[in-house]
Amino acid sequence: MISAINTYTWNQTSHTKSFPDDILAVSYEDGKWSKPYYDCGGGNIWMLTYTVPFFAFKDAKYFFKGTSGIDIDLRRVDIDQCSLPEGSTKLNIFASSNKCKMDTTQCVSLAGFGFRRGSYKCVCRKGYYFPNITSTEKSFNGIVVEEEYEKLMLGKPNTYNIDINFQCKKCAEGCDDCVDFSPCIATYDIILRITILLLTLLVIGFLPMVAIFTFKYSDLKIVKAASPVLLQIIILGAFFMYTTIIVMYPTPNLVTCTARFWLREIGFSLTYGALMLKTWRVSQVFKVNSAKTVRITDKQLIKLLLLMIAFVTVILFIRTMVSPPHTIVGRTADNLKTDICPTDWWDHSFSILEVLFLIWGIRLCVMVRKTPSAFNESRFISIAIYNEFIMSVFLNVSMIFLKYPANPDLQYVIFFCHAQLTATVLLGLLFGSKALIIYKGEHKVEETSSHKITTQKLKFNSKQKHSDPSYESISDNKESAELQEIRILRTTIENLIEEFLKCGPAYSDYVLKLQAMLEVMKNSKLGESEELQQKLALSNGCVIKVDSNKDVSCTKKN
């Protein structure tokens, strides 16, 4: 009941006055919509009817009188047979009534077809493409699909039940979207990568032979002077650097990206850390110009190297925890996808540290460039460090340009060449030169000459001094035997020092002892001998002359 203004009509011209009254009103909710139906025999169309009741008033009461309805022609009303979006509360009795094959296609509703089945099209899902790649319309007509499905339901011949009909084809592996079966992922050059892998394994296979060579000939002067323990550490570091090529062979993933990073840095630290420390020891030993004791053993160098490796390991662990290596999808020049291990500021920081470390090594090489060496090891170490510096700069710069576009095969080749041009060249210089000398037998000559050095130098200096005019002025029969022995001993010690310096840091202890002996002789016995020589010279009427080396001579007075 609602309040309204009411008036009664007696005839077409006579009405009562309007007055307030309570009347029974019908709202929209009181009506009812019918289901769509086909008006067979009437309009032969699909219709929809909305019906509401109406009431009569008599004896001050309302009573049901009948219904009133409105028919709606559905021929102009579109229906949506596609599925409702997930979570939608929209009322659609036709939802999900489409006949698209949902495995590879999905329904897209079309407007303007009216109230009829098939007002949609079946388009390919993501990751699939339309079978007819030359067709301009990349979808299946919903009307055709409905007709074929109806034939199937009626048991008539149809094409709906054929699996490949009204189905899209799957894109190539890794494609998010495609128009044909063209690849979306870059394929590796298997022949190239297998060749590089086999070459790497071949080089690694030689490392045990190099280690055995070092152990077998560790007693020889040529190997002993180079510190066999440090040589073995260099071989181990080279093994780690070669292993990075192996882990780069498969498709990048979390494990390979992490392993490559760790193996590279640990291998670099072992190999070039040992080289730097060897060079540093040489620089410390040979910059000493007095008898001051400077003793740096292999054990001390190994302790320093372990500290260096521990520092690198801690940094690597922090990097792995804070910013774990991962893979990203890169794009090649052909817009093909490929997985790559990205570089970030951690990688750039390690590259900068490597370069700074190599710069320090170059400085050490410059300091020891004039140091005598019997087997040119210092020279070979310097060449290896210069070479690594140049190759590392080239590698880091090339990685910047290889990020976009990505080229995994070229990147693999560059890492392989870098390993061969650094680690392999280093091994060739250090071990190849020693193997060549041993093969030619030159080490035997060196060993023999070392044993005979005292006798040869003694005879040589004795003859030299007797032939020197500065000594002829002193009579042989009056020269003290003590003075002659001291002179010969001093010259012999000096020659021994010279020979041991050529043998490298392994003989530094002997050098220090001989230097101390020489210093003591200069400060004590030599002074007494020179005083005795002066007395003998004066007794023979000589004029005393002392040169810069404190050698005393005399000249007869006229």
UniProtKB/TrEMBL annotation:
InterPro entries the record matches: GPCR_3, GPCR_3_C, GPR158/179, GPR158_179_extracellular
Gene Ontology CC annotations of this record: neuron projection; postsynaptic membrane
Keyword presence, Lipid biosynthesis: no
Location(s), subcellular: Cell projection, Neuron projection; Postsynaptic cell membrane
Keyword terms: Cell membrane, Cell projection, Disulfide bond, G-protein coupled receptor, Glycoprotein, Membrane, Postsynaptic cell membrane, Receptor, Signal, Synapse, Transducer, Transmembrane, Transmembrane helix
Keyword Iron carried by entry: no
Domain G-protein coupled receptors family 3 profile as annotated: residue spans: 192-438
Pfam family, one: GPR158_179_EC
Membrane-spanning ranges: 190-217, 229-249, 301-322, 350-368, 380-404, 410-431
Mode of membrane association: Multi-pass membrane protein
Family from the record: Belongs to the G-protein coupled receptor 3 family.
Protein name: G-protein coupled receptors family 3 profile domain-containing protein
